[in-house]
Amino acid sequence: MALLKSNKHVFWQALILALIIFNFGIFLGYMLENSRVGKVSQLYAESELDLLDVKIQSELFSLNLPNLNCEAAIEENINFADTVYADAKILDRFEQASKITDSIILQHKKYDLLRTLFWINSIEIKKQCNASYHNVVYFYHYNGPSLEQKAKQVVFSKLLEQLKANEGDNVMLIPIAADNNITSVNFLLKAYNITSLPTVLIDEKFEITELTNLEEIEKYLG
Known about the structure:
This protein is of the alpha+beta class. It contains 6 helices and 4 strands; from the N terminus they run αααβαβαββα.
């Protein structure tokens, strides 16, 4: 009888310890997830301020003010493009390490809007200042892509990353999720007649829906 009571005592101790460890693991996961969301929010806030500054600079050209410096505007736009690209890689790492939650999806939508605004701004600066850089916009599946779509997008992402490494400031690489139900993004998809994903749009003229090597992109960069 004493042995039975002892075994029950050990069982309840083990159960309580397991529950404590389980709940502690959930708590740590929750804290880590909040930390990641907070980091993304901070990055977004910083990028948003930088983009507003760049956007205002481009708007100044419509005022026909004297002594406006196109070289400075182009340089600032290129610098922001580097920020957009770096933030995209950080966000991708966070999303791969986390369960996709409503908070993460919301942050991703905010970044999609920011990148869309940056793309429009890049078009305007290129037109106003006769800039030579190329806008390379990558539209992709974000919400529940199939295994085939995932595999295809891995190829696209790796080749575009290599393109950016090779071309540097000559390319504005702008990734945008095309299935996040964002009205402005949907409008642009219709405007450029983009009906399949993933798609790479180069200089608002050339669409690439099949991509196996860099030459298929580089031929459009002149």
